[in-house]
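Re: your question about Orotidine 5'-phosphate decarboxylase

S., sorry for the slow reply, the queue was backed up all week. Below is exactly what I fed in.
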Amino acid sequence: MHFMTALEAAWRQRNSLLCVGLDPDPARFPAHLQGRPHAILEFCTQIVDATADLVCCFKPQIAYFAARRAEDQLEALIEHIHTRHPGTPVVLDAKRGDIGSTAEQYAVEAFERFKADAITVNPYMGRDSVDPYLAYPDKGVILLCRTSNPGGSDLQFLDVGGLKLYEHVARLVAEEWNASGNCGLVVGATFPAEIARVRALIGDMPLLVPGIGAQGGDIAATLAAGLSTHGAGLMINSSRAILYAGQDENFAAAARQAALDTRDAINAQR
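Result:
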């Protein structure tokens, strides 16, 4: 499955730009899952099964699994998504960024061990730190550009030859690093003006947009700034607002309703 092909099919067939982030925090799980040995996998698979027809992709955050020695549950979760919901892309949110030889191992981890369809990567060590991921032309490489956190401006707004650093990154990825057509960028919904600037620099390259829901990003502003010429081009991520919409044994049904409401709110503004 080529990541971009699967993503474009999901945008079209499911009429959805919604990405559900899988950030499992056992402290927030319903009581009946507390203390169970595979609670993370149980929680996440129920969320996935309840929402898969409403999303363009899922985005598990590796830290929530690794911190609890649950990497085996992450492997099982991604296998579950691919088996039960074929064609649904999985973006491993790892934000890796290291020198080439180490990056090669991170690429093996993401694409061969976990079998993710895409990974988030920090580009700030330069091209040789990204090449090991680009060596998998069927996999998505989604590079941090203008992040949703307030502190992102500390570096991303620095002047680089008349461009802000995030603008330089956007242009570099679009013009030099995207030879296989498998790159995307992360641009936060909390900065719609910067989304518009990035879109102007990169054309129709996909954008992963965190920051709606709990972080307060505005859906209408995000869409006005970021839609591609084909009326898609966005993976608009929501995590906590969907995962923890319900607190009892019906948590998956509550998550589905929250995902449905979010997807429909997005489509109403398209």
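The chain is about 45% helix and 15% strand. The longest helix spans residues 251-268.

Happy to talk it through on Thursday.
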